[in-house]
Design a protein that fits this description.
CATH superfamily of the largest domain in chain B: ABC transporter type 1, transmembrane domain
Radius of gyration of chain B: 34 Å
Largest sheet of chain A: 5 strands, parallel
Largest sheet of chain B: 5 strands, parallel
Order of helices and strands of chain A: HHHHHHHHEEEEHEEEEEHHHEHEHEHE
Strand order of the largest sheet of chain B: 6-9-10-3-11
Helix content of chain B: 55-70%
Strand content of chain B: 5-15%
Distance between the termini of chain A: 57 Å
Helix content of chain A: 55-70%
Number of domains of chain B: 2
Strand order of the largest sheet of chain A: 8-11-12-4-13
Structural class of chain B: alpha/beta
Shape of chain A: elongated
CATH class of the largest domain in chain B: Mainly Alpha
CATH topology of the largest domain in chain B: ABC transporter transmembrane region fold
Number of helices of chain A: 15
CATH superfamily of the largest domain in chain A: P-loop containing nucleotide triphosphate hydrolases
Oligomer: heterodimer
Distance between the termini of chain B: 51 Å
Shape of chain B: elongated
Number of helices of chain B: 18
Order of helices and strands of chain B: HHHHHHHHHHEEEHEEHEEHHHEHEHEHE
Chain lengths: 566, 523
């Protein structure tokens, strides 16, 4: 059984403490009524009972949180994997809320609500059992109150549940309105509308507050029912026991109570409804936890990667459309064979990165077709689909190489990667996507430079890694820092400039040795010379494999074999 | 001390809630104490024979016990309802007031709350404050209950009463101290770990394409799990703090009961009454424990709210009179009112920044002036009365299409809205919607495509009737035919109104609207 449920059962130990304490005071009072001094055993029982109760009160949350975290930590881990491993996942901000905040909410649910629910199911009956040892009738009275209590909870509870759900929804809408208006404040101020909108926000919040108060009148009824029956239980036990001791009961009493038994029953009576009061106190955690669970359930599972072709002969997208609510990219045509350099261009925010991700199979397009070419369809080493933009005289800073040429550019180190070129295409590595990705802000995991380079090529030797470093021009960086492959990086890549991080990503993509390289803004924010060397490198790479870059660098566009504008 | 004073009606409601809470607290103590007295008295009378039973007044106590059960229920219900009512009303006011404060700021210098995180935190902070207001009556009610319990115990002699008084007086500081020692550090650790985790997560999420391409999700998940460990540790420590304080309270109750009983004097029924009153009085102090435990976690939030509510400036309705058109100076170029220019230059050279500076949204980095005043020295009000902006990414408010258009200025008629939608080439789209202008648009768009959102934002700028129209990529995402139509209609509108134009566009068609082009590199 999960620890948090065991923690719920631990509340039964608390009942033992309560019984010990109740016995202690009953014994003490009985002794006092007989004119005896307080027995030491009574005092010991009172304090001992107190210690047991303190122990459980301390132990239950400790146990429960341990149990809760034993389930939320794996949940968070699997959520992170799903959220970061799927292109269909929500935006990073929303993903963070799902993986971090919602998981914390579930931890609260597991820590507070689950033990309380467990205790509410078992502890009242145990309490009745303990009380029955002293007085069967008192136990029966408590059980008897359970019937109208359950009836009242069904009546008030159903109304209260509906009401509190409505309240939660209304408050949620209000929060959304508030967040929306705060988010749009700059534009509202620009149009001088802030005073009008502020009045609207004020009216809306007051209106929701007034409505919520009406709702609470009903919602609090169920807790009033609980409160009433827990008070009534004490009152009924007290009145019954009192009349029984006086011998004034209007019915023949099957049991003869002593003061000790009666007082014990009285002291234990509040324990009967206590578990349910604890449960009611955790009700808010239940509501939030269930909402969080629903939201998390909607996170898509990571789709298995699309089957990679055995031989990569190119990729073709036709009339591709990517649509989100409120935003559409395309239709756009892109295709490339086994070599060449295609540039995707368009203004910031026009969807270049999304298009790359779609080509990589990470985003499912809403219309159009995208497929890997078979060797028969392949246009050959030179992408025939792009007849136009091959140029003779390329400008300064650009490689003189063209897609038809197979040799590397003169000032670029040779590829460390053996070619797997074969008839009709390039043999893909089994179980690997045929696609390498060089990001604008590459992933850096805490670890050494070696670890980070080898992320996509675990079997690469240090010589391979150093060759790749040289190829992307990171050598001078290592030399300047007097650093080796053991250079330690944190997740922000501290110590590396944006350009150096980008080169690292490019080196990793080269080491991954995939037939298709997708590069996102490989030259953004680089100085002219660095950009030129990266362009030369991409040109050289484009001779041996297919390269698609998203860019708005005119030099890189000029160096490309084809340009696709979004 | 309290930066969030409540208004008089809420204070009155809270006082009523306090009265209810006190009533409930006293009833709870008296219910148990009286029950104990009644039982013991009944037992003694029952043992002493029929005469004693006849002399024992059982009707009043037994009726009182039942009455107290009802009183306790009613009191608690009243307390909860009234305190929530006060808190909800107070928070509605606070939300409105805070929004007013934020709205009164200059966009160029205001705290940036546009991110979902910041605004969500604001909501969380307000909820924490609301919780504090809800709990406010519980503490004085606990104190009243404590005094009442001491008075009851005094029936069993001054020694017991004194002992209980000392114990109860020591409890709040003890709880506060324990809670502070146990929760201050973990609460700060949790806040810090949460921030670090969130930052790392968002960083990694930005590298999603690489993670997917190389199948690295499990490794990244491990790294993030490592980062989550301090957070889990801190939260476990907070739960342990809860446990320690709850345990302390539980033992304290039995200790108080045992001590009071041992020190009590007099008849057994009175001693039983004192015993149960003492036990119940400690239970009533649980409110202090809750507040003390939450204090460390809410303090930062309250400080953030206090900072916002202390921002200078108050909201005033903006004057609704048309402004005299002023010339705009871009570097060495002076643009007379009514001029139409396009700003050109490569991506990333700050064209959007320039447009937003003219709109008063950001501080200028280029040498710009409005009339004779450098832009940085213009008031926000002076700037916004001169220009109407349709930004690069349309910012729409959640609401209907009409709500968004009415933002432009007060008193816009439906005819004007339809005319502006026509100019923006959105009239047929809106006419085709079943609810027309009342069609709601979801926060992130939903019913409108990206291009339609941009044109709605353009229509809004047209409605503002400002001397200058600022357009940033107005035709992005449009097909060539619609783009040509839009440019033609915009030209007609500019001709008819004599409005000046500052335009940024990568596309050729809209550039035709401008009489002049200014390369941003020359500024």
């Amino acid at each position: 059984m999960a620890l948090q449920k065991q923690a719920g059962l631990a509340w039964i130990i608390d009942l033992g403490g309560a019984a010990l304490f109740a016995w202690g005071i009953a014994d003490g009072v009985a002794a006092a009524a007989n004119g005896h001094p307080m027995p030491a055993a009574a005092l010991a029982a009172m304090l001992g009972g107190g210690l047991v109760r303190a122990g459980t009160a301390w132990g239950v949350p400790v146990l429960a949180v341990r149990g809760a975290q034993a389930s939320t930590a794996p949940l968070r881990r699997s959520l992170v994997e799903r959220l970061l491993g799927s292109g269909a996942a929500p935006s990073s901000g929303q993903s963070a809320v799902l993986a971090i905040d919602h998981v914390a909410t579930i931890e609260g649910y597991e820590t507070r609500f689950v033990p309380a629910r467990m205790a509410a199911a078992a502890a009242p009956l145990v309490a009745v059992g303990i009380i029955a040892c002293a007085s069967l009738i008192a136990a029966g009275i408590l059980l008897g109150t359970l019937v109208p209590f359950i009836f009242g909870m069904i009546l008030a509870g159903t109304a209260a549940k509906r009401a509190s759900e409505r309240q939660l929804a209304a408050l949620g809408e209000l929060s959304d309105l508030f967040v929306d208006r705060v988010r749009t404040l700059p534009i509202l101020r620009h149009f001088g509308a802030e005073e009008r909108i502020a009045r609207q926000v004020g009216l809306a919040t007051r209106e929701v507050a007034a409505r919520t108060v009406e709702v609470l009148r009903v919602a609090f009824l169920s807790s009033a029912v609980l409160e009433f029956f827990s008070a009534l239980a004490v009152a009924l036990v007290a009145v019954y026991c009192g009349f029984s001791l006086l011998g004034l009961l209007p019915f023949p009493n099957p049991e003869t109570l002593t003061l000790r038994e009666a007082f014990f029953a009285l002291a234990m009576a509040p324990e009967f409804y206590l578990p349910m009061r604890r449960l009611a106190a955790a009700y808010h955690d239940k509501q939030l936890g269930e909402a969080a669970k629903t939201a998390i359930a909607a996170v898509p599972e990571v789709a298995p990667p699309a089957a990679a072709p055995e031989v990569f002969a190119g990729v073709a997208a036709k009339e591709l459309v990517i649509a989100w609510p409120g935003r559409t990219i395309g239709p756009v045509d892109v295709s490339i064979g086994t070599a060449g350099l295609v540039a995707l261009t368009g203004p910031t925010g026009s969807g270049k990165t999304s298009l790359l991700a779609t080509i990589a199979g990470q985003i499912v397009p809403s219309a159009g077709s995208l497929h890997f070419l078979s060797p028969e369809e392949a246009p050959g080493a030179l992408p025939a689909a792009f007849p136009s933009r091959l140029r003779e005289g390329l400008g300064e800073g650009e490689s003189g190489e063209r897609a038809t040429s197979s040799g590397p550019a003169p000032h670029v180190a040779p590829s460390p990667i053996p070619s797997r070129r074969r008839e009709g295409g390039i043999a893909a590595v089994p179980d690997h996507s045929p696609i390498a990705w060089a990001a604008q802000h590459p992933l850096i995991l805490p670890g050494t430079l070696r670890d980070n380079l080898a992320l996509a090529a675990p079997h690469a030797t240090d010589a391979d890694l150093l060759a790749a470093i040289d190829r992307v021009g990171l050598g001078p960086m290592l030399a300047r820092r007097d650093a080796s492959l053991d250079l330690v990086l944190d997740h922000r890549g501290s110590g590396l400039s944006g350009g150096e991080r980008r080169r690292l990503g490019l080196a990793r993509a080269l080491l991954a040795d995939r037939p298709l390289l997708l590069a996102d803004e490989p030259t953004a924010d680089l100085d002219h010379a660095s950009a030129a060397s990266i362009i030369a490198l991409l040109r050289a790479v484009a001779a041996e494999r297919a390269v698609i870059v998203a860019t708005h660098d005119p030099y890189l566009v000029a160096a490309a074999d084809a340009e696709v504008t979004l | 001390m309290n930066p969030f004073p409540l208004a008089a009606p809420e204070r009155r409601t809270l006082r009523q809630a306090l009265a209810c809470a006190t009533l409930a607290g006293l009833a709870a103590i008296l219910l148990l104490a009286l029950s104990g007295w009644f039982l013991t008295g009944a037992a003694i009378a029952g043992a002493s024979g029929a005469a004693a039973v006849a002399a024992f007044n059982y009707l009043i106590p037994s009726a009182a016990i039942r009455g107290l059960a009802i009183l306790r229920t009613g009191g608690r219900y009243g307390e909860r309802l009234l305190s929530h009512q006060a808190a909800l009303t107070a928070m509605a006011d606070l939300r409105g007031r805070l929004f007013g404060k934020l709205a009164a700021q200059d966009s160029r210098t205001a705290p940036d709350l546009a991110g979902g995180d910041a605004s969500a935190r604001l909501i969380g902070d307000i909820e924490a404050l609301e919780d504090l207001v809800v709990r406010r009556p519980s503490r004085p009610a606990s104190l009243a209950a404590a005094c009442f319990a001491v008075a009851l115990v005094a029936l069993a002699g001054w020694k017991a009463a004194l002992a209980l008084a000392i114990l109860l007086a020591a409890l709040p500081p003890l709880l506060t101290l324990a809670a502070r020692r146990l929760t201050t550090r973990p609460a700060a650790d949790a806040a810090e770990a949460l921030g670090a985790l969130r930052t790392a997560f968002v960083d990694y999420a930005a590298a999603r394409p690489e993670i997917i391409a190389y199948g690295l999700a499990p490794r990244v998940a491990d790294t993030i799990a490592e980062l989550a460990r301090p957070l889990d540790r801190a939260r476990a420590a907070l739960a342990r703090g809860d446990g320690v304080v709850a345990g302390l309270l539980a033992f304290y109750g039995t200790l108080a009961a045992a001590l009071v009983f041992a020190l009590s004097e007099g008849a057994a029924p009175i001693r039983a009454l004192a015993l149960l009153a003492a036990a119940a009085s400690v239970e009533a102090m649980a409110a202090f424990a809750r507040t003390a435990l939450r204090q460390a976690s809410v303090e930062q939030g309250l400080a953030r709210l206090a900072t916002l509510s202390a921002l200078p400036g108050d909201l005033a309705p903006s004057p609704n009179t048309a402004a005299t058109p002023l010339p705009i100076t871009l570097g060495a170029e002076q643009l007379a009112p009514g001029a139409r220019v396009a700003i050109t230059g490569a991506s990333g050279t700050g064209k959007t920044r320039l447009i937003e500076a003219l709109a008063g949204l950001r501080m200028p980095v280029h040498p710009l002036a409005l009339g004779d005043t450098p832009l940085a020295r213009c008031t926000a009000d002076a700037l916004r009365r001169q220009s109407a902006l349709a930004p690069q990414s349309a910012v729409l408010i959640a609401g209907s299409i009409g709500d968004n258009l009415r933002v432009a200025r007060p008193g816009i008629t439906e005819t004007e809205m339809l005319a502006a939608l026509h100019t923006a080439c959105l009239d047929t789209t809106v006419a085709a919607m079943p609810a027309g202008l009342d069609t709601p648009i979801a926060e992130a768009g939903g019913t409108l495509s990206g291009g339609e959102r941009k044109r709605l934002s353009l229509a809004r700028a047209l409605l503002a009737r400002r001397p200058w129209l600022l357009l940033d990529e107005p035709s992005e995402g449009l097909d060539a035919a619609t783009e040509a139509e839009l440019v033609a209609r915009l030209r007609g509108w500019l001709d008819a109104t004599g409005t000046g134009l500052v335009l940024v566009s990568h596309r050729h068609a809209p550039l035709a609207l401008a009489d002049r082009r200014i390369d941003i590199a020359t500024l």
